[in-house]
Structures are given as structure tokens and as C-alpha cells.
Amino acid sequence: MTRMKMKHNAICCLLALTLTGCGGEYNKVFKSDDLDYRYEYAKQSFAEGKYARAASLLIDLITPKKGSDDAQEALYMLGMSEYMSHDYESASATFKKYYQTYPKGVYAEQACYYVGQSLYEGAPEPRLDQTPTIGAINAYQQFMDFFPDSELRPKAQERLFELQDKLVQKELLSAQLYYNLGGYFGNVNSQNESNYISCIITAQNALKQYPYSKWREDFSLLVMKSKYELAENSSEDKRLDRYRDAEDECYGFLNEFPDSKNASMAQRFIDRCKKVTGE
Predict the structure, then answer these.
(1) How far is residue 51's CA from residue 118's CA, in Å, rounded to a whole number?
(2) Residues 193-224, buried b or exposed e (16+ Cβ, 10 A)?
(3) Separation of alpha carbons 200 and 213, rounded Å
(4) Mutual angle of helices 3-20 and 51-58, in 10-degree steps
(5) Tell me: the pLDDT tens digits for 152-200?
(6) pLDDT digit string, tens, across residues 13-39
(7) Between 88-101 and 3-20, two packed helices, what is the crossing angle to 10 degrees?
(8) Distance of CA 14 to the CA centre of its chain
(9) Helix extents (H) in the chain
(10) How far apart are CA 40 and CA 54, in angstroms?
(11) What is the mean pLDDT of residues 38-65?
């Protein structure tokens, strides 16, 4: 049994229990062989904002209604019912099915938009896996490509930028974690050196991928601090080169962010680097 079918059965059972005290109207409708009767009841439920009830009826009507005049409306209404019931995973799949089945359909533009919107609503916080976020970004981008003149385009673009910020936050959290782990063990060893290097790589990649991010200074600060810590904890054969590299990074930070609250830190690092290198 598929997860969607299991969810559908659970909803049906809940609704059946709820409506038993109201004359069992839902049970009567659900068991009816009259597809038109069931469909009209589903439409009425949708209009009344009873979206879970509408979805539970519509999901079993999609196949029988295929090829009929109601087919497009039924599929789109199912997607909206799932969306309004906060079942975003099912909603995104239904809207995608609609657009793939009816790319020039009556509701094609709205369905294409709501693929992204459903994924957006289900996107996790930055600390978690961001696969759904990437899916939402791709869906919004596809919508803007397919419907460049849509009235929904500004909203899609706004959401897309918001989701991109979430990806940047994810990278920032990862870089910060590497930096924190670098100093976790106290004495220098290959593990904390590796963490500082991972911090540098993660932050530098983010700076290249998101050059106009509002967290640009935060990434640059992590690179500077990690390079300095690497120099401070280096073996003799790497020490001078790493101090020179850290010094260059500090100057680069000051040039880009002269008014930073961390400017004094950068200058302190520079003074230390000069003292070691004698330059």
C-alpha cells in the first residue's frame, strides 16, 4: 500500500467518525457509485473550506474522471485541497502531475507555480538537509522560465531568493561548525588542522557561489580566522608560509570591510604575523 493511499485511508476513517454524528452524510457520499454526486459533494466541501474531506473524495475520482470535462478541475482541486490541508508533499506531486498531464491546461500556470510553493512550505530549517529547498528553487525557476509574464512571477522570485538565503545559511553554519571543531581539541593535531582547512574551503566556495550574499563578511571572517589559527598551530615546515598567507588574508579583509567591527582583530593578526615572519 502506498504512503498516499495509507494517508487517504486514514483521512477517510477520521472523517467517517467525525461525520457519523451528523447523519453519516460523508459515508453515504463516499460509498455512492454515482461519480457525479461524489464529485459535486467534493466541490461543495472545497468551497466550504473542508479541504481534507474534499481531498479524500477527489483522490478516488481522478482516475474515473480522466478524459472527462471535469478531469482538469478535479486534479487541480485535489492539489489545492492537499495544499490547504498542509499536506505539502502530496500537493507538490499532484500539481506536478497536473502540469505534466496538461501543460497547456486551464490551470497550468497556477499548478506550475504551486509545485514550487508546496515545496517552499515544506522546506526545512537551514540546519537540516536542504534537498527540498533545492527542489523548490528549481520549481520556481522552471515556473518563471515557462511563464515569464505571469502575475505570480514577482512572488516566485521573492520566494526563490528567500530559499537561496537558506542555502547560504546552511553553508555558513557548516563553515562555523568546522571552525569551532578546529579549536575543540585544544592542542594542535591533524584533526583540528583538517577542520580549519574544511572551514576555509566551505567558506571560500560559498563566497564564489553566492558573491552578493548578505553574509559575505561572515564567510570572509571565518576564512581569515581559520588561516590565522592554522598558522598559529603549524609545524615548523609550514609555519612561515601560513603566516604570510594569513597576513594577506587579513589585509584583504580590511580592504573589503574597512568599517567592520572585526577590523581590530584583523590588525592584531597582522601584527602577530609580521612579528613571526620579520617582514
Answers:
(1) 15
(2) bebbebbbebbbebbeebeebebbebbbbbbb
(3) 17
(4) 120
(5) 999 999 999 999 999 999 999 999 999 999 877 554 556 678 899 999 9
(6) 444 444 444 437 777 776 776 788 889
(7) 110
(8) 31
(9) 3-20, 25-31, 35-47, 51-58, 62-65, 71-84, 88-101, 108-121, 131-146, 153-182, 190-209, 216-232, 236-256, 263-277
(10) 10
(11) 94
Closest CA to 224 of 240, 256, 195, 247: 247
Q: Residues 119-130: what's their mean pLDDT?
A: 93
Q: What is the mean pLDDT of residues 207-223?
A: 96
What cell numbers appear for 32 in the block?
455512492
The Cα–Cα gap between 65 and 22 comes to 28
Q: Which amino acid is at 89?
A: E
What is the C-alpha separation between 55 and 46, in angstroms, rounded? Answer: 8
Contact indicator for 201, 194 with CB cutoff of 8 Å: no
User: What pLDDT does 80 receive?
Assistant: 98
Kindly indicate the confidence band of residue 42, based on its pLDDT and cuts at 50, 70 and 90. Answer: very high
List, as one string, the DSSP characters of 152-213.
THHHHHHHHHHHHHHHHHHHHHHHHHHHHHHTTTSS--HHHHHHHHHHHHHHHHHHHH-TT-
| Dist CA 115 CA 140 (whole Å) | 8
Angle CA 95–118–145, to nearest 5: 70
Closest CA to 15 of 71, 80, 85, 73: 85
C-alpha cell at 104: 497547456
CB-CB contact of 202 with 182 (8 Å)? no
